[in-house]
Amino acid sequence: xxAHGVGGLHNDLLMAGLMAAALVVxxxxxxxxxxxxxxxxxxxxxxxxLVCIGIALIALPVGASLA
Length: 67
Description:
Layout: H1 2-7, H2 12-28, H3 31-44, H4 51-59
Helix pairs in contact: 2-3, 2-4, 3-4
């Protein structure tokens, strides 16, 4: 995958890296910083914004219900 992503000059690797970074930053620094990095992932490629759903779920307090 690395050879295909780097060799083909695809921005998918950049988007995936920013998505992973958004989850890490969202857990360690807070949901606002994670959402900001998720916005950068979406700026690279639109599906990168889907990571913001995961960040919103991570930000919920323990034992919270979605209903």
